[in-house]
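A reminder from the course coordinator: this example appears on the midterm review sheet, so study it carefully.

Given structure:
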C-alpha cells in the first residue's frame, strides 16, 4: 500500500547504523544502505528523502544509545573508577568489529571537507552532551577537591582525549595502548 512502510523500521535503522558506522557517512551510498538493510533504494528515498536525512535519523538513535551507556559508565560511586569505566566503554565502542568500526561521529566529521551544517550540528550536539555528562560527574560532591583543574576544563580534556583515541585506534589498532593512554589522563586529572 502506498504510504505504508513495508519494513521493520527499527531493524532497518539498526542495519543502516552499522553501515554508516563501519564505512563512514561520506563513503556510504544509498545502494550500500539498500543492500545492507534489504530495503529497496526507492523505499528508502520515499521514507527518508535522502542519505543525509536517513543518516540524521540513524545518528539520533546512535546518540541516544551512546550517551545513555556513557552516563551509566560514569555513574560509578568512586570518581577514578567512573572515569576508567567511561574510557573502557569509549574504547570498546570504537574497537568493536573486524575491522574495528571506529567512532561514528569522528569518522563522519573527518570524512569530508564540506560537511553539511545539519550533520555538523548533530555531531556538535553529541559532543556537547558527552561533555555536559562528564562535567556533571566532575561536579558531584565526591569529585570536589579531587580534580587538578576545574570541572569544565577537565570535561573538555576528557572529550578531546576521546576524539584523539579514535585517531590512535585507527593508526595503531592496539586496545592496550588506548587504555594506557586513558589511564594516564585519569592520573593527570585526579589528585
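Designed residues:
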Amino acid at each position: 500500500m502506498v504510504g505504508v512502510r513495508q519494513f521493520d523500521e527499527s531493524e532497518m535503522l539498526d542495519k543502516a547504523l552499522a553501515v554508516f558506522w563501519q564505512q563512514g557517512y561520506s563513503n556510504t551510498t544509498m545502494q550500500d544502505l539498500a543492500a545492507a538493510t534489504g530495503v529497496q533504494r526507492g523505499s528508502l528515498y520515499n521514507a527518508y528523502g535522502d542519505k543525509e536525512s536517513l543518516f540524521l535519523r540513524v545518528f539520533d538513535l546512535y546518540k541516544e544509545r551512546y550517551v545513555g551507556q556513557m552516563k551509566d559508565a560514569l555513574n560509578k560511586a568512586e570518581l577514578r573508577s567512573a572515569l576508567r569505566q567511561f574510557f573502557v566503554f569509549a574504547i570498546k565502542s570504537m574497537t568493536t568489529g573486524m575491522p574495528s568500526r571506529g567512532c561514528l561521529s569522528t569518522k563522519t566529521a573527518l570524512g569530508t571537507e564540506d560537511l553539511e551544517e545539519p550533520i555538523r550540528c548533530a555531531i556538535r550536539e553529541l559532543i556537547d552532551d558527552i561533555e555536559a555528562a562528564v562535567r556533571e560527574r566532575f561536579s558531584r560532591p565526591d569529585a570536589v577537591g579531587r580534580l587538578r583543574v576545574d570541572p569544565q576544563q577537565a570535561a573538555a580534556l576528557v572529550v578531546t582525549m576521546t576524539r584523539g583515541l579514535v585517531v590512535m585506534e585507527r593508526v595503531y589498532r592496539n586496545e592496550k595502548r588506548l587504555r594506557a593512554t586513558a589511564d594516564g589522563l585519569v592520573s593527570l586529572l585526579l589528585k
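Residues 59-189 form a domain with the Tetracycline Repressor; domain 2 fold (CATH 1.10.357.10). The longest helix spans residues 51-74.
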